[in-house]
UniProtKB/TrEMBL annotation:
It comes from Massilia cellulosiltytica. Coiled coil: none annotated. This is 2-hydroxyacid dehydrogenase. Gene3D superfamilies: NAD(P)-binding Rossmann-like Domain. Belongs to the D-isomer specific 2-hydroxyacid dehydrogenase family. Keywords: NAD, NADP, Oxidoreductase.
Length: 311
């Protein structure tokens, strides 16, 4: 296969990653295609990030497109049905980010339960001199429900076992694991003090966590979302947080990132992080390497290393 040197890049990368991409490919952006439409015929690959949408109309304008390679495990913003129709392979970067997302999940959960951001502000404000910081909530001994027992869900479960919790999970199938499978999501929420959302985004899981599930989780329950904002009915979540239907939430993903609903900013029972799941030097370097290796492998052998099932 001829190695097409021109790629369409959607989204930005850290400078050290961009340097590696620029060393191997001629990157054009969406603005370049607008300015010089003839470039579209040269583009053999799209390089993107999993939190960026790959518009269908852009894919339709690229007659030589062979592969869409995303830096990330999620592919919910890639038009997979159109790619399959056009014979365009989609490749993601699974596994290399499992540990980073699991660490962010557990770090956020502990920070939420022990109210670490509030404690830090309390000390900085000099409030410690006047009183003791209010008692918080332990993780040990709690019932934790994991929604989505995929590769990242399993990494989270393995780590959580060392914290002395009771684990159960919900997903499409009973994987016959050491942890209890609960086919009914509302029942899992009812039986859990902590509900961790780590399922894939996309139409199939839209608003999986709705008012009914939040009510089942209850006033002593905490929600953690390190997957996609689309998995949660955000209007229901905001109401539940404002009305005490649930005790609190740690959220790394939202509707309409990065312009999230300002109602979150007024809440003291929520931990907000800016989609940091895979955001470590080591992990993003490994993801970028796998993204580039997918493109190289495709053009050299006609196979991507980590292709996504056709849409
Ligand atoms: C971010 C992610 O998308 O892997 C995913 O699906 O959501 C994260 O890794 C990151 O922006 C990927 O570049």
């Amino acid at each position: 296969r001829v190695m097409r040197k021109t790629v369409l890049q959607i989204g930005g990368f850290a400078p050290e990653i961009q340097a590696r991409i620029d060393a191997e490919f001629r990157c054009v952006g969406l603005a370049d295609l607008e300015r010089e439409p003839g470039l579209a015929t040269e583009v053999g690959a799209i390089l993107t990030r999993s939190n960026q949408e790959v518009p269908e109309d852009v894919v339709r304008r690229l007659p030589a497109l062979e592969i869409i390679a995303t830096c990330g495990v999620g592919y919910d913003l890639i038009p997979r049905a159109l790619a399959a129709e056009r014979g365009i392979v989609v490749a993601n970067t699974p596994d290399v980010l499992n540990a980073a997302v699991a660490e962010l999940c557990i770090g956020s959960l502990l920070a939420l339960l022990r109210r670490l951001p509030q404690a830090d502000r309390y000390v900085r404000a000099g409030a410690w001199k006047n009183a003791n910081f209010a008692l918080a909530t332990s993780l040990a001994g709690k019932h934790v429900g994991i929604v989505g027992m995929g590769r990242i869900g399993k990494e989270i479960a393995r780590r959580l076992e060392t914290f002395g919790v009771a684990l159960a999970y919900h997903g499409r199938t009973d994987q016959q694991l050491a942890w209890r499978y609960e086919p009914d999501l509302a029942a899992l929420a009812r039986d859990s003090e902590i509900l961790i959302v780590v399922a894939p985004g996309g139409a199939d899981t839209q608003h999986l966590i709705d008012a009914r599930v939040l009510h089942a989780l209850g006033p002593n329950g905490y929600l953690v979302n390190v997957a996609r904002g689309t998995l949660v009915d955000e209007a229901a979540l905001l109401a539940a947080l404002e009305q005490g239907t649930i005790a609190g939430a740690a959220l790394d993903v939202f509707d309409n990132e990065p312009d999230i609903d300002p109602r979150f900013f007024k809440l003291d029972n929520v931990l907000l992080t800016p989609h940091l799941g895979s955001a470590t030097h080591e992990t993003r370097a490994a993801m970028a390497q796998l993204m580039l290796d997918n493109v190289r492998s495709w053009f050299r052998s006609g196979r991507a290393l980590t292709p996504v099932e056709p849409g």
